[in-house]
Amino acid sequence: MAEQQTKKRISFLGPDASFTHLAALKAFPDSELIAYTTIPECIEAVAEDKVDYAVVPLENALEGSVPLTIDYLFHEVQLYVTAEVLSPIEQHLMVHPDNAESDAFEAIYSHPHALAQCHKFLYYTYKNTPLEQYSSTSAAAKMVSELPERNIAAIGNEFSAEKYGLHIVHREIHDFHFNHTRFFVLSKTNHQLENPAHNEEVKTTLMISPPKDDRSGVLHQVLSVFAWRQLNLSKIESRPLKTGLGNYFFIADVMDDEMSPMMQGAFMELAALGCTVKTLGSYYTYE
Amino acid sequence: MAEQQTKKRISFLGPDASFTHLAALKAFPDSELIAYTTIPECIEAVAEDKVDYAVVPLENALEGSVPLTIDYLFHEVQLYVTAEVLSPIEQHLMVHPDNAESDAFEAIYSHPHALAQCHKFLYYTYKNTPLEQYSSTSAAAKMVSELPERNIAAIGNEFSAEKYGLHIVHREIHDFHFNHTRFFVLSKTNHQLENPAHNEEVKTTLMISPPKDDRSGVLHQVLSVFAWRQLNLSKIESRPLKTGLGNYFFIADVMDDEMSPMMQGAFMELAALGCTVKTLGSYYTYE
Fold first, then answer.
1. Contacts of A217 in chain B (CB under 8 A)
2. Which residue range or ranges hold the Prephenate dehydratase domain (chains A, B) (predicted)?
3. Which of A39, A81, A223, B265 lies 20 to 30 Å (CA to CA) from residue A144?
């Protein structure tokens, strides 16, 4: 894509070989990718011009939204979504090549979410093997690669097996085979990365704060603004405004370009209703 | 209240002196309170008849909903809300009485949320003191009580200071003074605990799944069912159905009794729209 002709710098939620790293490679196969330890650090890197784009997780099909990403984008920075990346979450059981012949392990290490995602497989196949929580799937893979003398296994993605030279004993051991995570590619300027699928499905993400007097029924009014225009919402979710229990803002994904006449009309009516709208821009999907 | 004349057994999310423990004492001052380590264990205790009621956190004004509570109530059990408890979250800095004269500490220990909630106070008053994460506020208080020879402090609630005999050095050090947490009191049968404030404000919590063909705009239709009846929603939130990215159910709090004629009409229309509605019952608030 055009953005990559000069070598761009991209922050992502690390460590190396994380699922976010995989997502960042999908959008930026030839750029300089820099791992950050936390979501706020990753987002601040682009807000402070240390990098051109940040790639952070937004939502998982099983766990739901990542509140830290949504809250940081609402409360702390004004950034724009230039693309979203949808990645399947596939977990594999991996060991040091010295232990490739073994099928009984001292312990299995991974991030708590990955252990949970493989619950049924682990229950039926390794019922008596201790499960040990680790800070990330790729940190667990790294640790296993450094301790060939211990007959231990890690659960993680294929990329971390490659990176740390591990042997995959069981592939695709996750219980739900539709599990995906959605990532945002963030920038300081409101623009779009190239449309990789060349489809017409552009999406706009809005953060809508209701009027301060918080009339009950305002969400119904907000949805009416979109409904009669046949603007489809693929998602709507509430998050606390942090001003007191019961005060929320809404994050909505609308299936249209923010510059379309219908969207411009919707923005005007939302303002007339007393709502404050923060747009994160319009963008295409990398699958 | 009537429920307490025979001594009831109550599970709560522990450890002892947790904020959930405080909330449970508000609703059940004279009952047998039993700490459980995790939210699922606490909920299962009532589902399996080990206790009469379970008290679990649902939502915090800063952090938002507790996904584990909502998902477990939707996917795993059929329980009812018999009351909700609203508790202010007040954090204090506490030390062993031997160190009561000190105002400079080796380190300050607490749960990561509590450290985050006191961020500004800690930044301005103890800028160079290391902050150490601990599994809970009351576990941190317990540890400080057991190590008088170390000049360390914990952050937690007043109850944990009392329980572990600690001296409070600074009171109410949390940054936001409106911070509350909302707790559910769960039972296997659909009934209401006594209305402690003797007000008329009864609330019903519903879990609404849209029809499987997931017509876009269904949330607008759902809200219309309530809006024209002047049934006010104090909260609506989406959570993943765990059937694939983009598939959600909605948890809605409606300000009316589920047996009212308007609510019964709403239930019939929601069914006609193809929605599946799981009611958690109607209940009053303990503040």
1. 227, 232-233
2. 9-188
3. A39
Are A178 and B86 inside 8 Å of each other by CB?
A: no
pLDDT (tens digit per residue) in B26-73: 999 999 999 998 899 999 999 999 999 999 999 999 888 998 899 999
For A7-25, how does the pLDDT look when each residue is reduced to its tens digit (9 = 90+)? Answer: 899 999 988 999 999 999 9
Mention every residue, 6+ apart, whose C-beta is less than 8 A from residue A123: none
Q: How far apart are CA A253 and CA A285, in angstroms?
A: 13
Mapped onto helix, strand or coil, the DSSP state of residue B210 is: coil
Establish whether domains A8-89+179-193 and A196-287 are of one fold: no
Give first-to-last CA distance, chain B, whole Å: 16
Picking from A274, A228, A180, A22, the residue whose alpha carbon sits closest to that of residue B242 is: A180
Chain A, nearest residue to B66 by Cα:
A67
Domain B92-170 coded CATH 3.30.390.50: no
CATH architecture of B8-88+179-193: 3-Layer(aba) Sandwich (3.40)
Q: Any residues with CB less than 8 A from the CB of A227 and at least 6 apart, and which?
A: B217, B220
Q: Which of B208, B242, B249 to mutate to test the interface with A (most CBs of A within 10 A)?
A: B242
User: What is the ipTM, given to two decimal places?
Assistant: 0.80
Using CB atoms within 10 A of its CB, is residue A37 exposed (0-12), middle (13-18) or buried (19+)? exposed
Pairwise CA distance, residues A52 & A10, whole Å:
6
Q: Which CATH superfamily is domain A8-89+179-193 in?
A: Periplasmic binding protein-like II (3.40.190.10)
- Give Dmax (Cα) for chain A: 68
Query: Which chain B residues are Cβ-neighbours of A250 within 8 angstroms?
Result: none
- Chain B interface mutation, best of A60, A71, A75, A216, highest count of B Cβ atoms under 10 Å: A216
| Domain positions in chain A | 8-89+179-193, 92-170, 196-287
CB B92 within 8 A of CB B172: yes
Looking at beta carbons, which residues of chain B come within 8 Å of A216? 232-234, 255
Residue A270's alpha-carbon distances to A213, A264, B151, B258, in angstroms, are 15, 10, 55, 32
Question: Helix/strand/coil (H, E, C) string of A192-251?
Answer: CCCCCCCCCCCEEEEEEECCCCCCCCHHHHHHHHHHCCCCCEEEEEEEECCCCCCCEEEE
Tens digits of residue pLDDT in A47-99: 999 999 999 999 999 888 998 899 999 999 999 999 999 999 999 999 999 99
* Assigned token pair, B144: 């400080």
